[in-house]
Amino acid sequence: MSRFWHYSTTNPKYLRDILINFMGGGKDTTGTTLSWFILMLCRYPVVQEKLAEEINEATNMKGSTTISDFAANLKEEAVDTMHYLHAVLSETIRLYPAIPVNAKVCLKDDVFPDGFNVKKGDMVAYPPYAMGRMKFLWGDDAEEFRPERWLDENGSFKQESPFKFTAFQAGPRICIGKEFAYRNMKITAAVLMRFFEFKLSDDSKPVNYKTMLQLHIDGGLHVRAFRRIYRY
């Protein structure tokens, strides 16, 4: 906010709206996604260990580095090489999109590509949560958590069409904060995974979502964090 205020002569109301956009559209959605991400790490310990190995290799900061030193010296170049981390986050978002249902209001009469007519003022909603589980879009294993679906034969991250992976919308209304959100999540995840191992506090307790505007975990996610031990 201070940067906008310093460099902009825009009226305070507009700046307030920008701040609300960042807080509501950026902070909460990112936090929600990271909660589901940690749940996936707990449920799939092999994925968690593979991620820790990738982060350790990408950063190449061995020894007794402190958390603050690691975070301060985490380079963008290193983050960009974390293809498996990008894949795990994308697979988490596919199954648990922060906004499970998105709605739009028609500004004028229109016709969908399949011939369906919509009128001015109609509300049209699409469900990224359901679309991420559709077999005709993602294959017979659509309901499985498989980060490898996002990697090519060389292990590099491969983008999917935003009209298939709709969590960030598509076309002219695609989320302008998409890359910013990925960057925030990758940095946070890298710091957490470099130093901690996560396990559910109670493996027998079901984890469900709470029906809200965002896909929150009902009752929060209760985990135990253990200091990760490296043997070089």
UniProtKB/TrEMBL annotation:
TM regions (residue ranges): none
The keyword tRNA-binding appears for this protein: no
Gene3D superfamilies referenced in this protein's UniProt entry, alphabetically: Cytochrome P450
Coiled-coil blocks: none
Keywords, comma-separated and alphabetical: Iron, Metal-binding, Oxidoreductase
Cofactor(s) the protein needs: heme
Domain of life of the organism encoding this protein: Eukaryota
Similarity comment: family membership: Belongs to the cytochrome P450 family.
Protein name: Cytochrome P450
